[in-house]
Design brief:
Length: about 110
């Protein structure tokens, strides 16, 4: 069975706060691309404590690489200084091409 829609970026561009719960649920979607899009969508909203904690929680070795990179970029846009410990932690997350480490270093201003 195919999803109703594969790309949610158009919906994300609306930046509608009433869709926050939808985007939070999408961060757990089986499709990695949908998860990555959800993180970017959350980044377009005014952050609240729950959303910040959820996005921080995506910066793990177990998360898909693009999800981690998007989370780092969103956290940087919200509060680069306040999220510096998350960026430091991310530098040690392994990935074959070093994309996560580069995104973390960029977030730290290195």
């Amino acid at each position: 069975r195919s999803p109703a829609f594969e790309q949610t970026s158009g919906l994300a561009n609306l930046a509608r706060p009433e869709l926050r719960d939808f985007w939070m649920a999408e961060t757990k979607h089986a499709n990695f691309s949908r998860r990555a899009q959800a993180v970017l969508a959350l980044g377009k909203l005014v952050p609240d404590e729950t959303t910040i904690a959820a996005v921080r929680g995506l910066v793990t070795e177990a998360a898909p690489i693009q999800v981690v990179i998007n989370a780092l970029n969103v956290l940087k846009s919200w509060d680069a200084k306040g999220n510096a410990p998350i960026f430091e932690k991310a530098k040690s997350i392994p990935d074959r091409r070093g994309r996560i480490k580069r995104a973390a270093e960029n977030a730290l201003g290195n």
